[in-house]
Amino acid sequence: MGESLDPGGTRPVPSTPRVRVVPVAPDIGAEAAPSPRAFEPNAHAHGLPERFGEAAPDAGFRPGPSPEAPRVVPPVPAGSPDAARASLFDARIQGIIAKEGNYSNDPKDRGGATKWGITEATARAFGYTGDMRAMSRDHAVSIYRARYWQQPGFDRIETIDPAVAVKLLDWGITSGPTVGVKALQRALNSLNREAAAYPDVAVDGVAGAVTTAALRAFVAARGREGRLVLLGMLAAQQSVFYMAIAETRPANERFEYGWQLNRALAGIA
After folding, report:
1. pTM to 2 decimals?
2. Which of 19, 38, 125, 262 is the Cys-Cys partner for 63 at CB 3.0 to 4.6 Å?
3. Dihedral (Cα; 193, 196, 197, 198), 10-degree rounding
4. pLDDT per position in the chain (269 positions), as tens?
5. Which domains does the chain possess?
């Protein structure tokens, strides 16, 4: 595990690429994004706030998800229509958990106890009340599924483009789901030929009905080649995102190579 961002400290903010401002209503159809103060499992571990570039919290950690009960579902029965999609999510999450390791409680790490990449704050927010050392791998998977797959609507995106959904899942775990969604929205807006192919979408970080409709229209028009282009555009933005983190906080340079290899360029490099 890496070191955490000092919650009481200050840090430079990377410049944000100029994006096209479009006169459209915010996207709908997905749950509201978490508070800017929220922290996520790997975000905490590597010093990455959920929304990199926003102010750090004034003290301590805040639970990332809503205090309402998460939409946790039982495992999908083998042979059901959703089994293939469930296996895609499970395969990626198992790989992430393997990299995150087991239990950690580094005194230099302000996040405190962490198990399977899930901080205690996030575990408590999702109803876990036991000792962090005792949290099962399956329980961690259920939190990942609820917080980083179902809540931001990536399970719906998967029905259109599985590779994009997995990319958003992976990026969301390290940086918060809205970061990757905004990257997707920027890419879709730049690929719609001045709104001739489909309308612009608001770059609001919400993967709702408008964003999924734009993605569906793009994939229908461009096919396999378009999917590869879009995935590459997401990977490029994720790569630059991690570069900015290391540039503005040099202590994170020791993590940069791993972020690029295992996160931004995973499945592409």
Report:
1. 0.71
2. 125
3. 110
4. 443 333 333 334 444 444 444 445 455 444 333 332 233 334 434 445 332 333 222 222 223 333 333 444 455 555 555 555 667 899 889 988 887 778 988 775 556 798 998 989 989 999 999 999 999 999 999 999 999 999 999 999 999 999 999 999 999 988 899 999 999 999 999 999 999 999 999 999 999 999 999 999 999 999 999 999 999 999 999 999 999 999 999 988 988 999 999 899 987 76
5. 41-63+81-264 (1.20.141.10)
Start-to-end CA span in the chain (Å): 24
User: Would you state the torsion angle of the CA atoms of residues 46, 51, 53, 58, taken in this order, to the nearest 10 degrees?
Assistant: -80
What long-range pairs does 66-69 form, CB within 8 A, spacing at least 24? 66/31, 66/32, 66/34, 66/125, 67/125, 69/127
d(CA 246, CA 254): 8
Helix (H) or strand (E) holding 60: none
Burial class (CB in 10 A: 0-12, 13-18, 19+), 265: middle
Antiparallel, parallel or unpaired: β 103-104 and 118-119: unpaired
Dump strand ranges (E) for the chain: 103-104, 114-115, 118-119
* CA–CA–CA angle 241, 14, 22 (5° rounding): 75
The candidate with the shortest Cα–Cα distance to 47, out of 257, 235, 256, is 256
- Helix boundaries (H) for 150-263: 154-158, 162-175, 177-190, 209-248, 253-259
Query: Parallel, antiparallel, or unpaired: how do β-strands 114-115 and 103-104 relate?
Result: antiparallel
- Say how far apart CA 251 and CA 72 lie, in whole Å: 36
Please report which helix (H) or strand (E) contains residue 137, including its range: helix 137-145
